[in-house]
Amino acid sequence: MSDTEQKIKHLVIQKLADYIGVETEDINLEDFLDEDLHLNTAEITDFIQKLSENGIEIEESEFGKIETVSDLIDHILSQPGII
Q1: What is the CATH number of the domain that holds 27?
Q2: Do 69 and 28 meet the contact criterion of CB atoms below 8 Å apart?
Q3: Could you tell me which residues come within 8 angstroms of residue 28 by beta carbon, excluding any fewer than 6 positions away?
Q4: Residue 68 pairs with which residues in a beta bridge?
């Protein structure tokens, strides 16, 4: 995993942990945002929009494709100019 990939992974997990009020160690890449982390659709949308404060932009039309923490990280890393 490249340095950029590690930074994005760390950033997403740290921001997600802060958002839901848990420790970073409590978040696994395989966790489903809704089932495992108990976020409803509005909270998932809000969190993804908050990532834009860190320069991470995800189109709203893509939100439905993001189910797990890993999906979110992979989607960010697939954007042009990230890596």
Answers
A1: 1.10.1200.10
A2: yes
A3: 36, 69
A4: 32
Round to the nearest angstrom and report the end-to-end CA distance of the chain: 11
Distance of CA 34 to the CA centre of its chain: 12
CA quadruple 19, 27, 39, 65: dihedral, nearest 10: 110
Q: Is 67 part of any domain?
A: yes
CA distance 39 to 13: 14
Domain, as residue range, for 24 = 3-77
Assess contact for 14 and 27: CB atoms under 8 A: no
Question: Using one digit for the tens of pLDDT, what is the confidence trace for 26-78?
Answer: 999 999 999 999 999 999 999 999 999 888 989 888 988 999 999 999 999 99
